[in-house]
Amino acid sequence: MVLAELGTSISRALQQMSNATIIDEKVLNECLNEITRALLQSDVQFKLVRDMQTNIKKIVNLDDLAAGHNKRKIIQQAIFNELCKMLDPGKPSFTPKKAKPSVVMFVGLQGSGKTTTCTKYAYYHQKKGWRPSLVCADTFRAGAFDQLKQNATKAKIPFYGRYFFHILLIFSLYSEHVLNICLC
């Protein structure tokens, strides 16, 4: 939900900039302010947003651009690159090791799709040759175990848990060479 609204807001800001007849500092600032507002409303860290805005202004120096350059395209490319840079942690993503078990814990707000995402994550790793299993660690939500059981059965992934499962038992369940996925 939040990502869809963020994407809509960024697209709207870029569209408003594209509709402008003349691209000048005012139009650039309005576009950046709209994107900044959207990012901050989506709980992006203020320092990241401020740095992004500063970097875009450094890259897109409208006074130094020669006539004939497509200013809209340069601005859009700078915004795209800075947004991508925000999302790139600068290090490789987690990859499980074959020699030892791995535990991946998904944490999120109620209704954000953790159970479904965990099942998809386990299914992906199953197709890659791993032997994943799902562990129900949601001790509060009614139906959590049933939902996990239904999803895991459909995907043919082993699952563990009970209707009232103590969270400390989760970490004693995994065995060698198995990628375990925990729900919280």
Order of helices and strands: HHHHEHEHEE
State the shape. elongated
Number of strands: 4
Main-sheet strand order equals 1-4-2-3
Whole-Å distance between the termini?
20 Å
Mean pLDDT: 82
Q: Approximately how much helix is present in the residues?
A: 40-55%
Secondary-structure content class: alpha/beta
Q: Uncertain runs with pLDDT below 50, 5 residues or more? A: 165-171, 174-180
CATH architectural designation of the largest domain: Up-down Bundle
What is the CA-based Rg, rounded? 23 Å
Q: Look at the structure and name the CATH superfamily of the largest domain.
A: SRP54, nucleotide-binding domain
Sheet with most strands: 4 strands, parallel
CATH topology of the largest domain, by name, is Four Helix Bundle (Hemerythrin (Met), subunit A)
Keywords: Endoplasmic reticulum, GTP-binding, Nucleotide-binding
Domain SRP54-type proteins GTP-binding: 101-180
Subunit structure: Component of a signal recognition particle (SRP) complex that consists of a 7SL RNA molecule of 300 nucleotides and six protein subunits: SRP72, SRP68, SRP54, SRP19, SRP14 and SRP9.
Subcellular location: Cytoplasm; Endoplasmic reticulum
